[in-house]
Specification:
The protein is an alpha+beta fold. 45% of the residues lie in helices and 18% in strands. The chain has a domain of 118 residues: Alpha-Beta Complex (Lambda Exonuclease, Chain A), CATH 3.90.320. The chain is built from nine helices and five strands, in the order αααααααβββαββα. It has a five-stranded mixed sheet. A hairpin with a 4-residue loop joins strand 4 and strand 5. The longest helix has 24 residues. The radius of gyration is 19 Å and the shape is globular. The two termini are 23 Å apart. It binds iron/sulfur cluster. The site of iron/sulfur cluster (SF4) has 14 residues, from helix 2.
């Protein structure tokens, strides 16, 4: 019998649904995946954009972004962090170009001087239908009707609709909408994914049906995790994606 984690995050629920064994490695056994080019790219871009939106609106220009990116690069010692990565994906200059392109694409999605964010990297820790959840919301703002719009920056490619359903794509943000409703009594009208690499926005109107589906997924996943812990058995979901899984060398399905 294993002990379930004290809380779940929207991304860990996604991990369990992708592969229960992978969830066990990370959330039950506590094994850490090392940073990758993609995770460093996402963290660096998020950090710069968070600082950009902390500036006064008229300071949020493309020139200021360039200076800010340089400052944040030094403050986070990103030179050493990227230098330590496997060079398969490129050199430091490639990383900087990719990161800066993502940041500049923000202007294809919105004019930062006219966006008033109410929260960034907002921590939410709350129970939804008895399931303790914790996570950080990238950003949210208030629309003209007084309702919340939750946004999430993505630095990877837009997922192929053949392999990722709309419910899966927006699950994390709909979970944040449920969490905000529980913690701050805020109703969310829309959730949006800001794909910075491609400079496109995917959004969806939040409806009671969509929230009910997300809530059902949360409860069903928590029950499945508890049952797997009771049995001490987590299923391996073997797919082509196993070739990109850090845990493959120790995965029982690949021995
Ligand atoms: S290698 Fe495949 S089956 Fe094993 S943990 Fe990773 S994703 Fe799951």
């Amino acid at each position: 019998m294993l002990t379930p984690p004290a809380y779940l995050s929207p991304s860990s629920i996604g991990t369990y649904r992708d592969c229960p064994q992978k969830f066990k490695f990370s959330r039950i056994d506590g094994l850490k995946e090392p940073p990758t080019w993609a995770t460093h790219l996402g963290t660096f871009v998020h950090d710069v954009l968070e600082h950009l939106y902390q500036l006064e609106p008229d300071e949020r220009t493309s020139d200021v972004l360039r200076t800010l990116a340089g400052d944040r690069w030094k403050a986070g010692d990103w030179e050493s962090a990227v230098e330590a990565l496997d060079k398969k994906q490129g050199e430091i200059k490639d990383f900087k170009i990719q990161a800066f392109n993502c940041m500049q694409n923000l202007w294809r999605l919105e004019d930062p001087q006219h966006v008033d964010l109410m929260g960034m990297e907002h921590e939410v820790n709350v129970a939804v239908e008895g399931v303790q959840l914790r996570g950080f919301i990238d950003r949210f703002l208030i629309d003209d009707t007084g309702a919340v719009v939750i946004g999430d920056y993505k630095t990877g490619k837009v997922p192929n609709p053949r392999f990722t359903s709309e419910d899966t794509k927006f699950f994390q943000l709909l979970t944040y909408a449920l969490m905000l409703r529980e913690s701050d009594q805020e109703e969310t009208s829309r959730v949006e994914l800001l794909y910075l690499k491609d400079g496109v926005r995917h959004d969806v109107t939040v409806t009671p049906v969509k929230l009910a589906i997300a809530q059902g997924t949360i409860v069903e996943t928590k029950e499945a995790i508890d049952a797997a812990c009771d049995r001490g058995e987590f299923e391996c979901n073997v797919t082509k994606l196993c070739d990109w899984c850090f845990f493959k060398p120790q995965c029982p399905a690949h021995q």
